[in-house]
Design a protein that fits this description.
This protein is α/β, with parallel strands linked by helices and 256 residues long. Helices cover 42% and strands 19% of the residues. It has helices at 2-17, 54-64, 68-81, 108-117, 138-150, 167-173, 182-185, 192-208, 220-228, 249-254, and strands at residues 21-29, 36-45, 91-97, 125-130, 154-160, 177-180, 211-214, 233-234. The chain binds guanosine-5'-monophosphate (G) (2 copies), manganese (II) ion and sodium ion (NA). One guanosine-5'-monophosphate is lined by residues 43-44, 54-56, 59, 72, 75, 95-97, 130. This is EAL domain-containing protein.
């Protein structure tokens, strides 16, 4: 209990002092001969915190403490601030917890103001919906996402093929992208069952006009294999590790 209240104070300190640092991992398009940069996934980092087991531990603890909205909002704001002036045509993938769709501050109006402040537009942004807990109110989720999409934002379902069933979200929310969880990609070239599953996602995605993103690509063989299955985009350590935005020379050159 003492430990818990210390952790709670550490979390409040992170929120008050805005101590989250965003890093960005490239997402590559496989639609031409040579892979080309499509965009970045923003990932939260906690410099120097010894209280949490990485960002996942932090987000889980915030959930238990009823601070999901506040933490998600901070991470979202930091993700946008951290890549101010992102070139037009690039996508910025931002993780959001499904639950925050009930948060009044997750509003298109507020998000737009923030984007404009940093020289970005709704067309840059893809919200990655992570279902750490399942979506309870699909009608509410559909309403808010529809509102966002009419303004140019896009939607991805994250971690497909792992843990919680993402099939209902795919059917109900009709996302622009499905991100295939890295557990499905690891060793796919040597595992017929994984290949079948990805093929099934590819068939479904083609019918629904959804693009696929394979996560966790670490080996050349995995990249070749998913490409042959028709997966349009890829992300993983083979293609690039998460890094501060300033370390992407091509982007900073664009911005002077
Ligand atoms: O980057 P890393 O593998 O350490 O991230 C661990 C988990 O934390 C991932 O599942 C990722 O989705 C989640 N995560 C990282 N950054 C954010 C964020 O800014 N918002 C939310 N909601 N989840 C995040
Ligand atoms: O849950 P989500 O998909 O948002 O998680 C993204 C996390 O996956 C990030 O924390 C990132 O560091 C991690 N990640 C990205 N690429 C790879 C990879 O190739 N291998 C492994 N093991 N993790 C990866
Ligand atoms: Mn993600
Ligand atoms: Na994922």
């Amino acid at each position: 209990a003492a430990e818990r209240s210390l952790k709670r104070r550490a979390l409040e300190h992170i929120l008050d002092e805005r101590l989250i640092m965003p890093v960005y991992q490239p997402i590559m398009s496989l639609q031409r001969d040579k892979a080309s940069l499509f965009g970045y996934e923003a990932l939260s980092r906690l410099p120097g915190s010894r209280w949490f087991d990485g960002p996942l531990g932090l987000f889980q603890f915030a959930d238990e403490e009823g601070l999901t909205y506040a933490l998600d909002r901070l991470a979202r704001e930091k993700a946008i601030e951290g890549c101010a002036g992102l070139a037009s045509g690039r996508k910025l993938f931002i993780n959001i917890t499904a639950k925050i769709m009930n948060d009044a501050s997750f509003s298109p109006g507020q998000t737009l103001l923030l984007l404009q402040q940093y020289g970005l537009s709704p067309h840059h942004v893809v919200f990655e919906i992570t279902e750490r807990t399942s979506i309870e109110d699909f009608d509410a989720a559909k309403r808010i996402l529809h509102h966002y999409r009419t303004q140019g934002y896009q939607i991805a379902i994250d971690d497909a093929g792992a843990g919680y069933s993402s099939l209902q979200s795919i059917v109900e929310l009709k996302p622009d992208y499905i991100k295939l969880d890295r557990s499905l990609i690891r060793g796919i070239h040597q595992d017929g069952m994984k290949a079948h599953l990805v093929q099934t996602f590819a068939d479904l995605a083609a019918k629904m006009d959804i693009k696929l993103i394979a996560e966790g690509i670490e080996e050349d063989e995995e990249l070749l294999y998913i490409r042959a299955l028709g997966v349009q985009y890829a992300q993983g350590f083979l293609l690039g590790r998460p890094a501060p935005f300033a370390l992407y020379p091509s982007e900073t050159a664009v911005n002077g």
